[in-house]
Design goal:
The protein is α/β, with parallel strands linked by helices and 400 residues long. It has a single domain, classed as 3-Layer(aba) Sandwich (Arginase, Chain A). 35% of the residues lie in helices and 10% in strands. The chain is built from 11 helices and 8 strands. Strands 2-1-3-8-7-4-5-6 form an 8-stranded parallel β-sheet, sandwiched between helices. Helix 1 links the parallel strand 1 and strand 2. The longest helix is centred in the N-terminal third of the chain and has 20 residues.
Length: 400
Amino acid sequence: MFEHTMPRPSTQVIWSEAMMAYRFSESHPMHPARLELTARLCTELGLFARENLALVAPPVATDAELALVHDPDYIAAVHAVSADPSASNLKRGLGTEDNPVYAGIHEASARLAGGSLIAADAIVAEKALHVVNFGGGMHHAARGKASGFCIYNDAALAIQRLLDGGVERVLYIDVDAHHGDGTQNIFWNEPRVMTISMHESGMSLFPGTGYANEVGGPDALGTAVNLAVPARTPDAAWLRAFHAVVPQLATAFAPEAIVSQHGCDGHVDDELSNLCLSVDAQRQNALDISDLADRLCGGRWIATGGGGYNITGVVPRTWSHLVAIASGTPVPLRTAVPEPWREYVAQRYGISAPALMGDGAELWWRSWEVGYDPADPVDRTIMATRKEVFPYYGLDPWFD
């Protein structure tokens, strides 16, 4: 549908302090301070002042918009607990330990969803080439149920809006430590959408799904792709896994737009996963996804946030890198974290924040083409995924 590309990169960032109303409790891991600290760091780094970057406040998605991917009865249930938090609806996942309910939860959740909907609108209307909604990425929400801190699935809504706007194929890439089960299942039988999730194995982490043999519904076989890496996977193996699977399938699928989920809870200092990643690797992965968007779909890219619960040491740096990459000029890893931001963190949280924008990690990884090691559990994961999915695209699972 797209006949030309825009001057690159015209970038929008979805941000408003109203997004901080998505707040389950003061002690809940999904605390909105992670968003405020990210926006504050972006400001201190000068990212929000870039001439090609526009800040856009998200609207509250309407019920009709939410119904693009959610059951109307579920939307009504969220409304009900939003008006009366004493009326939990456990059948719908509302009022659980993961998803406590509170007054106003519908509006707060629908605002995050609205952010990703207007991101899709901007791409379709060619008002922006890249859009970042670091407050989004609520990938566990299902059609009819809340799950894993997620009420409405904004990433799925963005994908559906792109399809409805005439985009013929959308690639969804999810690198959160947890399987992107909600988004996968919403598009399970939709051949116009490929969902790729690289996550810690369900053998050791919620939600316990996302294995290589989950490949899509009968009308969309090969469009669900899962890389379930083992616990304790480090940077080099994680990047190796990505590059052994994602570029090949992305190229074969030939998307017109990419929607990505950049949960940063795979960091070694995040307590809610067992992966051993660095900010450096997560930044490199964002660069890799940006490159895929440039190469395959004219740069059209929506990037969302997701998980990430080390709110002072990891999340703000990782998502500031994402904003910098999306707006065309990455922040070098050796860049000093601005002192005013570090002072704010020290005064507000009593924590000494990192001094640099990177962790000083070694990012070299072994290319898949140099050989497969059957004794390596990550290599076995890679091979399992390639064997399951590559044949659908005429790719050799051993080579390419």
